[in-house]
Amino acid sequence: MKVAAGYARNYLFPQRLAIPMTLANKRQIEVLRQCRAEREAHEFNTMTELAKGVAKLICIIKVKAGEDGKMFGSVTAGVIADELKHQFDITLDKRKIHLEHPIRALGDHKVEFYLHAKVKGNLKVRVESLTPVVAPGPAEPKKEEGRKPRREKHGHARRDAEGEKAGKSETAEARPKGEKHVKAEKAEKAPKAPKSEKKEKKAG
Question: What's the CATH code of the domain at 123?
Fold first, then answer.
């Protein structure tokens, strides 16, 4: 670019913000541009391979949680970056990890990260509880089911009571018949002889 000679001489050159356009400087600039392009291509390839490798990993993060599975606290981008370094020896700036909001629930989560301006990847993060989560127990039987045997007992008691009543009534009916039969037998005995007949026998 072209600027005023005094501006370049008094400000740009002393501050090392520009150099004069000479043949030697042109060659140096071309070499720097070529090196920069090679460096960017190498970085792009490296980040692409790294993104493919990270996509196959599962980053497990242990957190404190209650028995109902509710987390105490949250998982941030900084926590994920630390776990990647600790578990897989992968250094990733937390600013390259994209989280819309901190993770506040147990389970598997898909997290996006940006390794390069043109390279984006996904990481699987599994959040687990340090304390075992208690599973819900079997449902208790209903009270109505427990009352069924009682109803049957009442039914047997009623039947037994009715049977006892019927037995009593039968014995009660049998007794009067027996008494009548005894009286009838007594009546069948021979009647006593009258007094007049006894006197006649004595006189004879």
Answer: 3.10.430.100
Residues 60, 54: Cα–Cα separation, whole Å: 13
Structural domain of residue 44, as residue ranges? 19-134
User: Which residue stretches of the chain are H helix?
Assistant: 5-7, 23-55, 77-88, 143-188, 195-203
Instruction: Give dist(CA 116, CA 159) in Å, integer.
Output: 89
pLDDT digits over 139-148, tens only?
555 555 555 5
Which of 36, 137, 54, 45 has its CA nearest to residue 91? 54
**Contact in structure between 90 and 82 (CB atoms under 8 Å):** no
State yes or no: pLDDT of 173 exceeds 70.
Answer: no
pLDDT of residue 125: 95
Look up the pTM and report it. Answer: 0.53
In a domain, residue 108? The reply is: yes
Strand pairing report for 58-63 and 119-129: parallel
